[in-house]
Amino acid sequence: MPELPEVETMRRGILSIVGGKVADVAKPPCARRPILLSPGIAAFRRRTAGRTITAIDRVGKRVVIVLEGGDRIVLEPRMTGLVLLADPPTRDHLRWVMTLEDCAVEKVWFWDRRGLGSVRLFTEREFIAEFTESGKIGPDALAISWQELRSRLEKSRRAVKVALLDQKAVCGVGNLYAAELLHVAGVHPETPCDAISTAAWKKIHTAMIDVLQEAIRYEGSTLGDGTYRNALNKDGGYQNCHRVYGREGELCRTCGKKEVIRIVQAQRATFYCERCQNRNRSH
């Protein structure tokens, strides 16, 4: 967390800075665990000051600020990072600030409670090498076809829920939305990928697109810890629509017959309904 819907919401939330010019970047004093900032703040400032912002993109779970000339600032929230236009939740965990001119927006803030996120500056060539040519990042979950999704995973013996978290295979899906999309698709999360039929792969792909797009419309999910916020420091709304995630012991919202079950896969919690996702019918 944040996953693709939350990061896409962050991206859309700062679109108003396109056309603005970078006046300064700063690393506020912070006594907490430091994030990865590359290059150092002096070089970062030297390479970005005076540059116009031409686009705001997204690579998987990362917001990408594109500068004239092709350099890119990549903001990776990881577990608790936020990209904000409004004042951050606290000053203690403020990690990076970009001040703008020729723009209605004065500042962009990167806030990170746990310090696991990063802010990195790439040349265009470095960016392509890192995120396109390296093989570290798979196709975006909103862009991949069902055929490619199947071809990337169908030979794996891993449980499908675990495989969907592999960012080299498909990029953007995390623990929450993997559980939700498999519920919508009617596929048991422990089903091995190599046992899934073509028809089920099509259902998984359709559910993935539908769930992610629905979550984006609600501006992502703010869970019980309240960490995730949109660019204006407001809650997302999709947590109110979760069908199974975080609902252990509650009646399934789809069938209304069985309680949601929680199991652990690859050290992460998985939630499902044994009636809607019956292992004998899911593939």
TrEMBL record:
List the InterPro entries: FPG_cat (IPR012319), FPG_N (IPR035937), H2TH_FPG (IPR015886), Ribosomal_uS13-like_H2TH (IPR010979), Znf_DNA_glyclase/AP_lyase (IPR000214), Znf_FPG/IleRS (IPR010663)
Annotated Pfam families: Fapy_DNA_glyco, H2TH, zf-FPG_IleRS
GO MF term list: 8-oxo-7,8-dihydroguanine DNA N-glycosylase activity; class I DNA-(apurinic or apyrimidinic site) endonuclease activity; damaged DNA binding; zinc ion binding
Kindly state which keywords UniProt assigns to this record, in alphabetical order: DNA damage, DNA repair, DNA-binding, Glycosidase, Hydrolase, Lyase, Metal-binding, Multifunctional enzyme, Zinc, Zinc-finger
| Cofactor(s) the protein needs | Zn(2+)
Q: Which GO terms describe its biological process?
A: base-excision repair
User: Which domain of life does the protein's organism represent?
Assistant: Bacteria
Q: Which reaction does it catalyse?
A: Hydrolysis of DNA containing ring-opened 7-methylguanine residues, releasing 2,6-diamino-4-hydroxy-5-(N-methyl)formamidopyrimidine; 2'-deoxyribonucleotide-(2'-deoxyribose 5'-phosphate)-2'-deoxyribonucleotide-DNA = a 3'-end 2'-deoxyribonucleotide-(2,3-dehydro-2,3-deoxyribose 5'-phosphate)-DNA + a 5'-end 5'-phospho-2'-deoxyribonucleoside-DNA + H(+)
Which residues are in the Formamidopyrimidine-DNA glycosylase catalytic domain?
A: 2-117
Name the Enzyme Commission number(s) assigned to this protein.
Answer: 3.2.2.23
Q: What Gene3D superfamilies does the record tag this protein with?
A: 1.10.8.50, MutM-like, N-terminal (3.20.190.10)
Indicate yes or no for the key word Transcription regulation: no
Which part of the chain is the FPG-type domain?
243-278
- Would you identify the family this protein belongs to, as annotated? Belongs to the FPG family.
- What protein name is recorded for this chain? Formamidopyrimidine-DNA glycosylase
